[in-house]
Amino acid sequence: MPAALNKKERNEVKLPNRRKKKAAASKEVVLPFEQVIIELESRIRDAQNDEERKGLIELLEKEEKEIYENLSAWERVQLARHPKRPRMLDYTTRIFDDFFELHGDRSMGDDPAMIGGLAQINGQTVVVVGQQKGVTTEEKVERNFGMAHPYGYRKAMRLYSMAERFSLPVISFVDTPAAHPGVEAEQFGQGSAIAQSILHSLNLKTPIFSIVLSEGGSGGALAIAVGDEVAMFENAFYVICPPERCAEILWRDVEQKELASSALRLTATDLKNLGVIDKILPEPGGGAHRSPDKAAQVLSEEIERFLGRCKQGMYTAEKRQQKFQNMGTFFEEVIEEPPIQQAAE
């Protein structure tokens, strides 16, 4: 059985010219730590016989396990931002039997960055709300890269109220760099819209399941991430401020983004240990962008478990409020020291 590559050997792996040309032609993004995986997959396709192919597959599995179990915080940020990573609508089309989108905040307009509507899963109706970043350049611009305006959050609140009125569970998909930072957003009450959305979520008398798909940035994420259960994909991140901005603020140097990523404690494992999230959803080998169907299956199963607990009446607004009130609290424990033993004379 072939041994896994050491760090030096892994760093020395270069994509062959034919692979580079193919990647360039298809605009494929290959992250630095993914190069050895891409090369091994190429060798598997070109294997001369079954024995060689089997050995390479075993080596690939070892490398995937070694690499993806030991990613740094910044490398997980890179995975979360991968251009091929599944977006909200990629999941809704795979998970729900039907999705009927509803528009507008009934006050100012409709925000394409915030999507919401009614959906069915295994015959049960739910209300779905979430941010859509966009895939193509045109869609990204149209949806403002998933950064909602004030009326986007007000649309979400309208749908939350509708869910409460009809006793429907809410499923919220978080995927945004942050709330829209433009002057017009402040003019129309960005801060108050986010605050009202958080308060509305805390008081809602129907269960809420929130999932951080990739980027969970600042108040733009928190506005729809208050839930009875908050889950994250293992390569997503949830943070008050992008690592680049944090590095600029603290060290006046954007190149310190890797250090900032580590200091911010933004990974799913960090947040689970801190009690900010409840569940980490595993991703297929190499990340959700390499197998969206498997990632959607993992999320679908978790949503079904949540809906099963909803029927048992396990969630209330009071429990949800208590859960968030307990975040960030700590207690000091006084430890009595044993008496000092007098030395024998």
Taking pLDDT < 50 over at least 5 consecutive residues as the criterion, the unreliable ranges are 14-26
Separation, N- and C-terminal Cα atoms = 67 Å
User: Which CATH architecture of the largest domain would you pick?
Assistant: Alpha-Beta Complex
How much of the sequence lies in strands comes to 5-15%
Total domain modules: 2
User: Main beta sheet, described?
Assistant: 8 strands, mixed
Give the % helix. Answer: 40-55%
What would the principal axes of the Cα set say about the shape?
Answer: globular
Task: Give average pLDDT, whole number.
Answer: 86
The tally of strands reads 8
What do we call the CATH topology of the largest domain? 2-enoyl-CoA Hydratase, Chain A, domain 1
Write the element-wise H/E pattern from the N-terminal end onward. HHHHHHEEEHHEHHEHEEHHHEHH
CATH superfamily of the largest domain: 2-enoyl-CoA Hydratase, Chain A, domain 1
